[in-house]
Design brief:
The chain is of the alpha/beta class. The protein is 29% helix and 22% strand. The strands form three sheets. The chain has a six-stranded mixed β-sheet, with helices on both faces. Helix 4 packs across helix 5 and helix 7 packs parallel to helix 8. The longest helix is centred in the N-terminal third of the chain and has 14 residues.
Length: 297
């Protein structure tokens, strides 16, 4: 058998076994971190720039246009089509919470048409992002022919930690306070287990139930444990409410609801080893990695 015939037979076998047809594109689920260019990976930028279709919310489109990753809105027609100077045509699709299932199906069809699709997620797409929905929809739609690649991004726990020092240098966990996908009883159980286990805890989706979460942790942890309230980490003035960080204690955290500004807010709750370090300008949080003396490292 000739090599060309062998290749043809191998391709046919792959297709029959559910392999990816050669004429398909790739669905990239892309994390852009907080969204500003200095915190977005080179890989994420390259994928977005080279994809024929970009699915992104209005806020993320704004971030990506500000640094030139996407063409300005003025250069995009009413159908969302933008054409670069080199002739490359890109379709920009606006994503909203109520259209996620519809847009996942559309992404599969774009890929089957041979187009690369960048489905944009803030932070990291696998940390309370879009990755799970894409895989669930792929299973629902029997989309085994659609290649999927996850492009990681900087998540709020890491960005917020950097803003306040080094609070995550020992074991930590993240807990989402959103009860849209799971009951509050389950969230409470996880919070209590994390507090008892002495994890440093990063709370996501703090516009919901954050006072209740603080009260639960207080039952298992001393009130003098340090807490950082972080808003729009890594977004400077481009976020919904502007980047800020505020250090308080667990006993007083619920008294500072004016610092909890919405979807961009995370709380970092220290454990019994988390301590402060001060220089002339500010106070930092540090959780030692098992030892308090330099000689222990």
């Amino acid at each position: 058998m000739s090599s060309d015939a062998e290749a043809t037979e191998m391709d046919a076998t792959a297709d029959a076994a559910g392999g990816t047809p050669d004429d398909h594109g790739t669905l990239y689920v892309v994390g852009i971190g907080p969204g500003l260019p200095e915190h977005m990976t080179k890989r994420a930028k390259e994928v977005i720039e080279s994809s024929e279709v970009v699915i992104a919310s209005s806020l993320y489109q704004e971030f990506l246009r500000d640094d030139g990753t996407l063409l300005p809105e003025a250069e995009t027609d009413e159908d969302g089509i933008a054409v670069r100077d080199d002739g490359f045509e890109q379709e920009i699709v606006r994503s909203t919470m109520g259209r996620q299932i519809e847009l996942a199906r559309a992404a599969f069809e774009y890929v089957r048409e041979g187009k690369d699709v960048a489905h944009v997620s803030g932070g990291d797409p696998s940390v309370y992002g879009k990755s799970d929905l894409i895989f669930k929809m792929a299973e629902e739609e029997d989309a085994t022919d659609v290649p999927i690649e996850i492009v990681p991004g900087l998540t709020a726990a890491l960005g917020g930690s950097a803003n306040v020092g080094a609070p995550l240098c020992n074991d930590f966990c993240t807990v989402s306070l959103s009860d849209k996908w799971r009951g509050w009883d389950e969230i409470e159980e996880k919070l209590r287990a994390a507090a008892i286990s002495d994890f440093v805890i990063v709370l996501y989706n703090c516009w919901r139930n954050y006072e209740k979460a603080v009260d639960i942790v207080r039952e298992e942890r001393t009130d003098d444990a340090y807490v950082a309230i972080v808003n729009d980490a890594g977004r400077a003035d481009a976020g919904r409410n502007g980047e800020s960080q505020f250090i308080t204690t667990l006993g007083e955290a619920a008294d500072h609801d004016d610092k909890v500004s919405g979807m961009g807010t995370s709380l970092i709750i220290g454990n019994h080893e988390t301590e402060t370090w001060r220089n002339d300008d500010r106070t930092y949080l540090v959780t030692p990695r098992g030892g308090r003396d330099v000689d222990d490292f």
